[in-house]
Amino acid sequence: MYLKELEKVFGHGATYRNGQEKAIDRIVKGERVLVVQKTGWGKSLVYFLATKIIRERGDGVTLIISPLLALTRNQIESTEKYGLNAECINYQFNKSIKAKKEIINRCNTGDCDVLFITPEQLQNKGFVNLLSELKVGLFVVDEAHCISDWGHDFRPDYRRIKSLIDILPMNIPVLATTATANDRVVNDIVTQLGRCEVIRGDLQRDSLYLHKLELPTSKEKYAWIVKNLKNMNGSGIIYATTIKECERLAIWLRYNGFDAHAYHGNLKEEVKIDLENQLINNNLKVLVSTIALGMGFDKEDIEFVFHYYSPKSIVEHYQQIGRAGRNIEQAVCVLLYGGEDESKINEHFIYNSFPKEVHINLILDFLKENDGVKLSTIEGNVNINSSIINQIIKLLLIDGFIEKDSKNNYSCSLKLYNSQQNYYESVIEKKILEYNELLEFQRTEECQMMFLTRALNDSNSIRCGNCSTCLGRDWSFTEDNLTTNEIKNVSDFFEMNFIKIDPRMKTSKQGKLEYTYQVGLALSYYHEELGRLASDGKYRTGEFSNLLVKASADKLKRFLKEKNINIEKLVIVPIPSNRRPQLVPEFANRLATKLQCFYAHILAKRENEPEQKTLLNRTLQEQSIRDYLYIKEDIDLSNYHVLLVDDFVDSRWTFTVATELLCEKYDIITVTPFALADTSGSD
């Protein structure tokens, strides 16, 4: 039916995979289709080839809602082989309405065939109005599981898509695609798309050789990864939960001679593009990534995907291992799991995936009393975590309970709020069940591929014959036994590696700080051995052990030497606490004795200071520190290097404000923070 069109792109003898031609036919006939097919099946071929056919008969452009910039860049490159011209509008580029209007004009005059936009663009009324001028021939929702509240990558802005679909003429075809939707998610997507045909295939991936291994500690996981990377010939991806873990693991791999880099949402766009290209061209061994390099990233010869952590669901796991083995016969995918904090981290993300009713009411009550206020004003008056405030504001805007004017002031709308809490709680409950399903996957003794595909409601699930469960003793793709020396190498690295405390450059109101501290040092992460020892000292024994003093002194000597800081001109200043007034000062004094440097207990806090951890957003945290921290004793620290010492670091506001106080009063050479443990952890 459409074989000639396929051969024009892929050459004589090219054939469709099962279901592709059917999907194209439905689209060309103006119908609505949901395609649920395994990763690597060729979902993008369907909408690009359909676009080519639609454009050749003179219809409008294809508008694609795509969730990730990495995915969009990847797909724009793919359009070239179809002879299509593509443009993209996202938060990184095309920020002016004028620039966006020029792109819309190019689409309407035939200079552009495909327009990619991220869902966040739909919150801009000006852009949505501009979008109404676009001549659309095909509307595509890529990674459509994001439409669903049940989907593992749900984003509130995807809910705006339904309103766009509702106003499309019924003769405009709509295509939604995903590889990771179980029955529950499929039904939800169909409800939001309206009438549509579901084209669903089997999810079996014969090229993937699956393995899972329980390793309870970071040291064991680090040792295993290095040992097994030596046996992987090509390039691949290692998924980790947090940005800091990605960065440290990448450093460890480089330390062992592998060309490895961290990839996450905090990188500059040009850096991410460069790393993606290096991976695609096999110019590096591995990217250690958060979920930022997940959905739809298309590199045909990824030979391995390792999970340093357990994903939050079967669908997330299947999505990520789906990056591997797309056009090669064999790729190894390994889930490393274990450690008591792993479940805590995942459960934290799940339970905080939707806001609590009490927080929603706090924001609504504030807006009722204060009409037309900025986001920073809300933060400064409502004690809720900044990211949760942003989440609530977005949900309330989408549902029309609040409004935003052209100056970004927020007000309550005339629409009365009706509670969504029961619905949110039901979704969270289902997410917990899905996470428990992933934990069951860790324990299962049946075929791993069959377990995954059955959990995704694939009625054709069969034993793969390739995974470590199926092969048993014949599994030979990884070496799982670790020696004492291999673990010791990681311990030595942890001891030598610096966990850095980066300076804040702006206040919570985005004004530039006049004084900033130098890059500082944390002895450990909170969940690791020394971090737990510090927690035990603070909350159980009431003092920090000599082991912590020695470990801190040893690490600081190396760190200060690298920074060219003369210990003879170093003065240690403890961060004060009204609740445990002696804990940090006594530790800091012992540390000063060990380092043979000066000690000055000159900072104090006024009485009745609220506990920092009870203040949940950056604005309140900063303001509290400014209100209560002061210099109690006038000891001239001019021409000294100051080492600010605290037990734990999270928001960094205490170090930031203490630096300002000291630098305003004294002519200090540098200020460097030090903490026993970094508790910030999450992205």
Q: Could you characterize the architecture of this molecule?
A:
This protein is of the alpha/beta class and 683 residues long. It has 4 domains: 3-200, Rossmann fold (3-Layer(aba) Sandwich); 208-340 and 445-483, P-loop containing nucleotide triphosphate hydrolases (Rossmann fold, 3-Layer(aba) Sandwich); 351-423, Winged helix-like DNA-binding domain superfamily/Winged helix DNA-binding domain (Arc Repressor Mutant, subunit A); 498-678, 3-Layer(aba) Sandwich (Rossmann fold), CATH 3.40.50.2020. 42% of the residues lie in helices and 16% in strands. The chain contains 25 helices and 23 strands. Helix 11 links the parallel strand 10 (260-263) and strand 11 (286-289). Helix 2 packs parallel to helix 3 (43-56), helix 9 crosses helix 20 and helix 15 crosses helix 24. The two termini are 48 Å apart.
CATH class of the largest domain: Alpha Beta
**Can you count the beta strands?**
23
Number of contiguous helices: 25
Contiguous low-pLDDT stretches (5 residues minimum) are none
Shape: globular
Termini separation (Å)? 48 Å
Tally of discrete structural domains: 4
Q: What is the CATH architecture term of the largest domain?
A: 3-Layer(aba) Sandwich
| Overall mean confidence score, pLDDT | 90
What structural category arises from helix and sheet content?
alpha/beta
Beta-strand proportion: 15-25%
Give me the side-by-side strand order of the main sheet.
3-4-2-5-6-1-7
What does the radius of gyration come to? 27 Å
CATH topology of the largest domain: Rossmann fold
**Share of residues in helices:** 40-55%
Protein name: DNA 3'-5' helicase
Domain Helicase C-terminal: 217-370
InterPro entries: DEAD/DEAH_box_helicase_dom (IPR011545), DNA/RNA_helicase_DEAH_CS (IPR002464), DNA_helicase_ATP-dep_RecQ (IPR004589), Helicase_ATP-bd (IPR014001), Helicase_C-like (IPR001650), P-loop_NTPase (IPR027417), PRTase-like (IPR029057), PRTase_dom (IPR000836)
Catalytic activity: Couples ATP hydrolysis with the unwinding of duplex DNA by translocating in the 3'-5' direction
